[in-house]
Design a protein that fits this description.
Layout (H helix, E strand, L loop, with lengths): L7 E2 L2 E2 L20 H13 L7 E5 L6 H14 L3 E6 L5 H15 L14 E9 L2 E11 L7 H14 L4 E6 L6 H17 L4 E7 L14 H5 L1 E4 L5 H14 L6 H11 L3 H14 L9 H25 L3 H12 L3 E3 H8 L3 H13 L3 E3 L4 E4 L5 H7 L23 E2 L4 E2 L14
Parallel strand pairs: 3-8, 3-9, 4-7, 7-8
Antiparallel strand pairs: 1-2, 5-6, 10-12, 11-12, 13-14
Length: 435
């Protein structure tokens, strides 16, 4: 019997699929990301003087940001680094970072950090067991977990402790586009002071949606984030898709015909997430590894995957947009998926300036691609079928108001607690507001 076969249970049959169709799950085979991971790793090894030591990954949904973040975290852990892994999808990031630092006392014994389990000043002798470091120390130290220290002091203390052991600290923050603006400024200031000014071994890698280009990165008070090395997740090539499908299938004792592989690979487009979904659906449709993945299985996989990707990426991305932005994409869908500034402005009866500004913003955020002769076309992020389906109950009349006044760019930072976007102007002072 094949190694990948799994016995049935009363609950059902466990999947033997070598693909990971869920968000953030690291697949068995990473394709198209070798250069990115090498560049990030080289920056970490070089140290605080390297611009890549503090980096931000940006990409559309399903482009592999979280997977790349997971991989670089794993590599840093294997090299003995202290890794603090968090996300900014909800408020309270600074407090969560401090709790993670407190919990690191148990995971990284050799650093002499306090344990989160105790709320008192304690005295203890400790040993070292961290990566390749191993041994015992006879010194005894006291800690007070309730000392009035803030985020900057705790991060500095952690970086100093790591520096004494000859290692580094890596702080990763996923969903960076959702960070509270006040918390972003606080974190930016602290990291600027510790890493950039003091040169301490505290590395930072953030990841978020492309919309950060015209929200977070336009805030004049976030100079640290501006100075980070910025990486856009490169689209997969056809060769990447072919390798990313064939390798896991054959590595799991599966078989796929050349015709089926070509069909599946062409349907992947440039999305790592779509690759995993199509691969998983093809494996399931063929009952692999018993059955061969043929053209019929590939056709079925592509059809099923289209609906899954639309539901998990296209529709959420559509509802991230403002009414104004949705109007622009709806007009493009009715114009065949590609249009010029003039044709959209005429259809919606709005100014060319406002139309052009919105199109450029959508282009920066990955919703559009710019072709030749000032023409824009819909990208794979929200395809034409999703737009037409999501607007099928609309009146068909232009939703964009006819305005000759210049439009002030809005912050549009997402506030999870209020479940709304910020309505203030880009680069505003103070916290975000929904009304």
């Amino acid at each position: 019997m094949l190694d990948m076969m799994v016995s049935d249970s009363p609950l059902g049959r466990a999947s033997s699929s070598p693909f990971s169709p869920g968000f953030g799950w690291t697949p068995r085979s990473l394709v198209g990301r070798d250069d990115l991971l090498f560049d990030l790793g080289s920056g970490l090894v070089t140290g605080p003087s390297d611009s890549r030591y503090t980096s931000i990954l940006m990409g559309v949904r399903g482009s592999g940001k979280t997977v790349a973040l997971n991989e670089i975290e794993d590599r840093a852990c294997a090299d003995g680094w202290v890794v603090l892994s968090l996300d900014a999808s909800s408020p309270g990031l600074p407090e969560r970072i401090m709790r993670t630092i407190a919990g690191a006392g148990e995971r990284y014994e050799g650093l002499g950090l306090p344990h989160a389990a105790s709320g008192k000043s304690v005295q203890r002798s400790f040993g070292i067991r961290l990566g390749v470091l191993e041994g015992n120390l006879s010194t005894t130290e006291s800690y007070d977990l309730h000392s009035p220290t803030g985020l900057r002091e705790q991060l500095t203390h952690l970086a100093e402790a790591a520096d004494r052991q000859g290692i580094g600290v890596l702080l990763t923050v996923d969903e960076l586009h959702g960070i509270d603006r006040g918390e972003a400024r606080r974190l930016s200031s602290d990291l600027q002071h510790i890493t950039k000014r003091a040169g301490m071994p505290l590395a930072f890698i953030g990841a978020g949606l492309l919309e950060m280009k015209h929200t977070l990165m336009r805030d004049t008070k976030l100079t640290f984030f501006h100075r980070c090395e910025h990486y856009e997740m490169a689209p997969l090539t056809l060769a990447d898709a072919t390798k990313g499908l064939a390798g896991p299938i054959r590595g799991a004792n599966g078989r796929i015909t050349d015709e089926a592989l070509a069909k599946a690979a062409r349907s992947v487009g440039n999305s790592p997430y779509r690759l995993q979904v199509i691969g998983h659906q093809a494996w399931t449709a063929a009952d692999a590894p018993i059955g061969v993945i043929d053209r019929a299985a590939a056709d079925l996989a592509v059809e099923v995957a289209e609906g899954i990707v639309d539901n998990n990426i296209g529709i959420p991305a559509w509802h991230d947009l403002s009414d104004s932005e949705q109007s622009i994409l709806e007009a493009m869908a009715h114009l065949g998926g590609h249009a010029t500034v003039g044709s959209i402005a005429a259809r919606l009866r709005i100014t060319r300036k406002h139309t052009g500004n919105t199109l450029r913003r959508l282009n920066l955020s990955g919703y559009l691609e710019q072709g030749s002769q000032r023409e824009f076309r819909l990208s794979e992020l929200v395809p034409e079928r999703v737009i037409l389906n999501e607007t099928r109950f609309s009146s068909g009349l232009p939703r964009e108001r006819d305005s000759r006044k210049p439009v002030t760019p809005r912050c549009r930072n997402w506030m999870p607690r209020a479940k709304a976007y910020c309505v203030l102007s880009t680069g505003h002072a103070g916290r975000c507001r929904s009304r």
